[in-house]
Automatic annotation (TrEMBL):
Record keywords, A-Z: Methyltransferase, S-adenosyl-L-methionine, Transferase
Coiled-coil positions: none
Pfam families the record matches: MTS (PF05175)
Location of the Methyltransferase small domain: 191-320
Protein name as annotated: Methyltransferase
Keyword S-adenosyl-L-methionine: yes
PANTHER family xrefs: HEMK METHYLTRANSFERASE, MTRF1L RELEASE FACTOR GLUTAMINE METHYLTRANSFERASE
Gene Ontology biological-process entries: methylation
GO molecular function (one): nucleic acid binding
């Protein structure tokens, strides 16, 4: 989202990768501290930092401590707190999401001015040109304001993009820029790799390819012809780059919604797992409003499947534990789509949040199971 906002000097563009509304105005104070910036933030006014970059990061850290209520740590602890949260699980999830959004909006009120050509002209500022080019592409001609918290995220994402993420199941690295979901949760990749052992699929579709990791895994396991699809331009560019790095010339990528033309022996999809509204482009890989992508994929898969072929769906049951989806939702979707289960492979998540007792959703994450559903056309 971008918009022009008044600053007392001139109107200037405000950029924010989330769906948050822009501030009503922005100010350039000679001096500012965390309390003053927060006071202005609660009045919907952004503060543009013009001092030392490292001091700005310290102020942002102080703001984060202040916007997190002291009572949160206490509630996140003992069994009584867990029992209280569990009484209304769905409400707990939505309250957690709302708090995250509110805190993010307030923290994003500390901004910096990015000059023409992606320059940041404040003392001890790093060179941010490459990080911003990763996000925006062509350098800007006019200055714009950017939340410092997001700029730090862009810088971190750029470093990860250069370094890449080691994928044991692939035997290589996947490089992911900002705006494309990173395959940090490798347990579902292990399920796919196990299912591919001994398979003889000749053609495959990877629906919603994202970074291209699943398509690459299919290619590494000997599927000769693969088509990957996505609607996100950043994902399409990212996947193409990864296929080139891995020297995979048997994958075609198309910018299209769900299915390409034709049929395949294998159709794989790892859709967003939670039926909720995303608050940014990258969250579209996590949240699927009203399960629209999930149902669209399942309802269209049989028409694109060769005889004797399989549909593979990667899905977590976290939504069921959060009471966002009924327990019989998936079986009903399979039946409606004229698909039946041939096999289910399952594993437990291994990421840090799964074992974090202080996570607000720990009561659900602790029971989460990730499944690979191998589906066939119903007889």
């Amino acid at each position: 989202m971008s918009n022009l906002i008044p600053t007392g000097r001139t109107d200037i563009e405000w950029r924010n990768e989330s769906t948050q509304k822009p501030p009503k105005a922005a100010v350039y104070p000679a001096e500012a501290n965390a309390d003053k910036i927060l006071k202005a933030a609660y009045e919907h006014t952004a503060t543009v930092w013009t001092g030392d970059f490292h001091n700005a990061k310290q102020v942002l850290a102080a703001m984060k401590k202040r916007v997190k209520r002291p009572s949160e740590k206490k509630r996140a602890g003992g069994g009584d707190a867990v029992a209280e949260r569990s009484r209304n699980i769905q409400t707990a999830f939505h309250a957690h999401r709302m708090k995250q959004a509110q805190q993010s909006r307030i923290l994003n009120m500390l901004a910096v001015e990015i000059g023409a050509g992606f320059t940041l002209d404040i003392p001890r500022a790093p060179d941010v040109k490459a990080a911003l080019a990763d996000v925006y592409g062509k350098p800007n001609d006019a200055p714009f304001l950017l939340p410092l918290n997001q700029l730090l995220g862009f810088i971190g994402a750029h470093e990860w993009h250069k370094k890449g993420v080691e994928i044991p199941a692939l035997g290589g690295r996947i490089h992911v820029p900002f705006g494309v979901f990173s395959p940090l949760r490798g347990e579902y990749l292990d399920l796919i790799a196990a299912a591919l052992a001994g398979s003889k699929f000749q053609t495959a579709f990877d629906i919603g390819t994202g970074s291209g990791i699943i398509a690459a895994l299919l290619a590494k396991h000997g599927v000769p012809k693969i088509t990957a699809t996505d609607t996100n331009p950043r994902a399409v560019a990212c996947a193409c780059a990864n296929f080139c790095r891995l020297d995979l010339d048997n994958i075609v990528i198309e910018k299209t919604d769900l299915f390409p033309a034709g049929c395949a022996d294998l159709i794989v999809c790892n859709p967003p797992w939670l039926p909720a509204k995303p608050s940014s482009a990258v969250e579209a890989a996590l949240y699927d409003p009203e399960s629209r992508m999930l149902e669209g994929f399942l309802n269209g898969a049989a028409a694109h499947l060769n005889d004797g072929g399989e549909v593979w769906l990667v899905m977590s049951d976290l939504a069921e534990h959060l009471h966002l989806r009924e327990q019989d939702f998936l079986p009903q979707c399979f039946q409606t789509a004229s698909l039946e289960i041939a096999e289910v492979l399952q594993t437990r998540p291994k990421h840090a949040k799964a074992a974090d007792e202080n996570d607000p959703l720990a009561f659900a994450r602790g029971r989460e199971v990730t499944s690979l559903y191998r589906l066939k056309k119903a007889v």
